[in-house]
Structure formats: C-alpha cells, structure tokens
Design goal:
The protein is α/β, with parallel strands linked by helices and 439 residues long. The chain folds into 3 domains: 200 residues; 91 residues, Translation factors (Elongation Factor Tu (Ef-tu), domain 3); 123 residues, Rossmann fold (3-Layer(aba) Sandwich). Helices cover 46% and strands 17% of the residues. It has 11 helices and 12 strands. Strands 4-3-6-1-2-5 form a 6-stranded antiparallel beta sheet. β8, α9 and β9 form a beta-alpha-beta unit. The two termini are 24 Å apart. The protein binds flavin-adenine dinucleotide (FAD).
C-alpha cells in the first residue's frame, strides 16, 4: 500500500490530538485552582510525556491500517525519535516542579513515603536506561533481541508507574471519570503489547510456511524460498517486507525483518534474500530445507505506483537491491515496460548480488543498470567509487520528468542521497527510502 499526504497528515493529527488529550481531560469538569505557571507547565509536560510513552506501543504494534499508510519502517524511525522527546518531557516534569517548589523533592524522599520514593527513583533510572541502551546498544554490545525484549519491559514499567503516580497525586484526576480515562488508556497500551506478543503469534501459528529452497547468492547472501503449508500464502506489494521467524516458535524474540525479493505475482513462492551480517543472518545458509518458518506481514510503503505507471529511478547498494529486485521481477511477470534506471553500488564485480538475474531482466524490461564498484579490479571500465551526487547528476533524468525514486542501501549512502534529491528539487512525495537499520 502507498500513503497519500492526506492520510499521513490525518494520522499525524490523530497522534497530536492523543498526546494533548490528557491535558484536555485535566482541564475538563471541575478544575482545581491553578498553582502558578511553572508548576502547571511541569505537570502538563508529565501528562503529555506519559501519553507519548503509551502511544509508543501503538507505533511498534505493527498495525496494518497505520503501517500500511505510513510505512512500518518510517513509524519505527518516528518511534525512536519521538521516544527520546517523550523521555525528555517526563524527566523535565520533576525537574521543573522541584525548581518551582523545592517541597516537591519530598516525592523522592524515602522517609516521607518509601514505596513512592523507590518507584519514582526506579522509573527515573528506567527512563535513562531506555535512552542509553537505545542510543548506544551496539557500543554496549547488547544483542538486538535482548535489547528489544528489555526495551518493552522498561517501557511497560514506566507507563505503569506513571499511571499509579498520576492516580496517587490525584490533583487533576480526582473525579472518577478522569481516573477511568487514564486506566482505560493504559489498558489500551497494554492490550497493544498483548496483541503483538500473544495474539498475532497465535494467528501466525495457524499459517506456517516450509522452507522450500536455500540458495547461495553473490555478496555473502542467501535466498530462502517459502512455501505456504495449508493456506494460500501471503499477498504482498513489490518492495514490501515481512518479519521472519525461522525454525522456532512464533512467540520467539528472534524475529527479523527482510524484504521480499521474489515477484509479488507469485504469492505461493515467496523468497527473501539475506546477507550474512550478524548472529542470525550468518546462520541462514545452514537452514535445512523443510524446516518450518513463520512470516508476519506484509509491511512497508516502499512500493511503486502501479496505476500511474510512472518511470522509476532506483538507487541501491549491496543487499539494498532486494526490494528493487522484487519490483523488477514483478514488472517482468506483468510485462510492465515503464522505464527503470538502476544505479547499483557494490564492492567488486564478483560481489554484485543478482548480477546474472539483472542481465536477464534487462532483456525483458526497459531497464538500464549502472554498476558502481568501490573496489573494482584492473579490467573494470565502468563507474568506480561510491554513489555520489556528481555521479547521479550524470545518470538521473531531469526532475521535470517526475519519475519515482527508490533509495535503499547502507546508512551513509542514504544520508547523502536523500538530501541530494531534496536539493535537486525532487518533490518529497516522489522519494521512497527504505532503511534496513531501524535501531
Ligand atoms: C524494513 C527492513 C527490510 C530489510 N530487508 C533486508 C533484506 O532484504 N535482506 C537483508 O539481508 N537484510 C534486510 N534487513 C536487515 C536485517 O533485518 C538485519 O540485517 C538482520 O535483522 C540482522 O540480524 P542479525 O542478528 O544477523 O545481525 P545483528 O548483528 O544482530 O544485527 C545487525 C543490525 O540489524 C538490525 N537488526 C537485528 N535484528 C533485528 C530485528 N529483529 N529487527 C530489526 N532490526 C534488526 C539492527 O539494527 C542491528 O544493529 C532489513 C531490515 C529492515 C528494517
């Protein structure tokens, strides 16, 4: 699915409305007497910060209705950025209240109320921990799966202590219906988590797949084929991705996102192509044919507009070719003859993932491929180095032609090409980016 700017704006407005809802609730019904600007401001930040923290469960909940319009990957990026803002707001809440009135320090004083002080000190620690482990997970050498599990537990703890704190202080929520709103909102956030971790895996269990093929590819990569067992498979749009659980229970924390590399016209023969990178991906080549896999999806808004048939410019490097490969294979199955320019970066000619498949697709499609090698051997006469703005200037069609741009590759490439396209005057709505690294 693709999003329209109107749909995306509506979701953003809904998000903003929900973040200020606690303040609106606080200022409805019987309102207690105001206590000075800084106190009220500090309280407001706490309310908004906690609402944002609760909404984080929606952003990570992989809901098709929302993820289909905004793109799950963009939502997870947003989750990461906005999470930091939420933590800052929540931490600013006690700081401002204590500066405005030092008597508020009593909230952290164990002599006043031991369980309360313990909970508030612990939640402050949890807030700091959640940010530090997210920003510096790799430096701290925390495996991704353990980080993800711990991240969820910390977030639950923060939301739960926040709710108890609000109900205990009770200044703005003395009426029963206001307390009800907070309890319901927190319950909804918990329900999202239960849905992601329990209900969805239960549904996946009923739709297993069998690994039907394990093929070695160039560039230290492997293609896995999946055959639906007892169901019709998964219909996806070319360019989308799914979460893969391999040879494990659907409740496993070892779930990894991979783009489909096969044609969207063949839902019975799903394929994902995986580059050996870390503890999970380095073992996929050893997967025995016949083992069970679970796929959740499809997700993502990195998809071409089928209806308009607009020309495409694809800029990929390394394994970032996988969603583009799915687009090209789908076009071949549909005999879609729109023009596609693919600028494709790799280390060496031997490393070029799908090299032979691309040569074959060039016979079938209106496809131009420009290979860019960063470490070519001496015989190489094509483009060398990285995919730079200067190189793109030579190959990209004029902006006025309004092709759709698909960019997928390593972080540094994405970080340089996205602003380049913006500065070139390419409208934001024409550029689709897929980042393989969420956190
Ligand atoms: C939308 C999307 C599509 C992707 N498509 C492909 C593809 O087609 N082919 C391919 O080879 N790779 C793809 N990736 C990247 C792939 O998910 C990671 O390389 C893989 O999960 C690494 O796992 P690991 O345990 O082997 O490596 P690790 O060394 O544990 O992780 C390396 C990095 O991968 C990311 N990662 C690890 N586990 C997860 C997880 N469970 N969920 C999200 N991110 C994780 C983290 O940023 C981590 O730092 C895609 C990623 C995303 C977000």
């Amino acid at each position: 699915m693709r999003y329209t700017p109107i749909q995306a704006t509506l979701w953003i407005l809904a998000y903003l409305a929900l973040t200020v809802l606690p303040v609106l609730v606080a200022y409805s019904g019987s309102i207690p007497e105001a206590r000075g600007f800084w106190i009220e401001f500090g309280v407001g930040l706490g309310f908004v910060g906690l609402a944002m923290m609760g909404l984080q469960f929606v952003l990570t909940g992989r809901f098709h209705g929302i993820a289909g319009t905004l793109g799950l990957d963009s939502m997870l990026q947003f989750h990461r950025q906005i999470g930091i803002v939420a933590v800052i707001l929540i931490l600013a809440h006690p700081v401002i209240l204590i500066i405005a009135d030092s008597e508020n320090l009593a909230f952290f004083d164990p002599r006043e109320n031991l369980p309360r002080a313990f909970a508030l000190v612990s939640v402050t620690g949890a807030l700091l921990l959640i940010v530090l482990t997210t920003l510096w997970r790799e430096a701290m050498r925390i495996p991704y799966e353990w980080w993800r599990a711990g991240h969820g537990v910390l977030a639950l703890f923060i939301v739960f202590v926040g709710l108890v704190h609000i109900l205990q202080v009770g200044f703005y929520v003395s009426e029963w219906w206001k307390q009800g709103v907070w309890v319901l909102a927190t319950g909804a956030a918990m329900a999202m988590l239960i849905n992601t971790r329990v209900i969805r895996p239960m549904q996946m269990k009923k739709r297993p797949y069998r690994v039907s093929d394990v093929r070695e590819e160039r560039g230290n990569s492997w293609t896995l084929g999946f055959e639906p067992v007892g169901h019709s498979g998964m219909r996806f749009t070319e360019g989308q991705f799914g979460w893969l659980i391999l040879n494990d229970t659907p409740y496993s924390i070892q779930q990894h996102p991979f783009s489909f590399s096969s044609s969207a016209e063949r839902p019975q023969q799903l394929e994902m192509t995986i580059k050996e990178l870390g503890d999970f991906s380095s073992t996929v080549g050893e997967t025995p044919v016949g083992v069970t896999a679970y796929l959740e999806g499809p997700f993502g808004a990195f998809v071409p507009d089928r209806e308009s048939g607009r020309n495409m410019v694809c800029i990929s490097a390394g394994v970032g070719i996988t969603p583009v490969m799915s687009m090209l294979r789908t076009m071949a199955d549909r005999n879609d003859q729109r023009s596609v320019s693919l600028i494709y970066g790799n280390r060496s000619w031997e490393d070029v993932l799908f090299r032979e498949d691309l040569e074959q697709l060039q016979q079938q499609l209106n496809l131009e491929v420009v290979h860019v090698l960063s470490q070519p051997d001496e015989e190489w006469t094509g483009e060398q180095g990285r995919i730079t703005a200067e190189l793109l200037e030579r190959y990209l069609p004029p902006v006025a032609e309004r092709p759709e741009y698909f960019v997928c590759g390593p972080e540094p490439m994405m970080d340089s090409i996205e602003p380049y396209l913006r500065n070139r005057g390419v409208p934001l709505s024409d550029v689709f980016s897929e980042r393989f690294k969420i956190v």
